[in-house]
Amino acid sequence: MSGLQCLATENIWFDKQRYDEAERRFYEGANGPAVQQQQVKTALQQAKGKQKRQHRNSSSHGGGDQELITRMKSLELENQTLHKVVENMRAALEKLESRVAMLEKTPASAAVPCAKAAPVQQAKVTNGGGDKADDDDFDLFGSDEEDEEAERIKQERVEMYAAKKAKKPALIAKSSILLDVKPWDDETDMVQLEQCVRSVQMDGLLWGASKLVPVGYGIKKLQINCVVEDDKVGTDILEEEITKFEDYVQSVDVAAFNKI
Question: Residue 141's closest CA among 120, 117, 114?
Fold first, then answer.
């Protein structure tokens, strides 16, 4: 039998579609259920994950909204508190302004009561026929005796003040003077020169500390301090008295003068 004849007797090629379907079913029966179960599991896991993400997103949005609402409520409370504080301060300021305006309008003479006003006597009202006599005896402005008494007290106080002021010692004006006493040369005895200066004595003069200050070329000058009463001793008198020692003193200058 030739190959063409064999092919003619075989009908497999005419039922190829049926054989392909049987082959597909065979392979699906061998591998299909496991693959389908895996696909189902994957789809279920994806659905669960999507649901969880949606739940988390919804919960996060809900928490954010709740926090925002809480902050808005707290801000509203703070705003109300600040409004109350501002209103209280505004009321206090208005009260203060009104008080200042009243004080400015009130004259100073009305604010200070008269210290020496004569006391006003109260009239005694009596029933009977002596009303006219009581009116004659009543003095609305006080008696002359009270004026004399007030004048006497005032005079006594003035005398007491004058006596107290007279007992206080009078202030004596004093000054502190720093003198520069210059010798003729470097051979001048400075100890003797200082003794000559301190030998000048007068009422209201008090000698203080002294020192030798170099001038140049081996020459030193005497710097001496003294306290004087301005009414009794002056700088001119001091210079005149010190320059009398011509053998030691060349000149006298006032280095510093301060009031005490």
Answer: 120
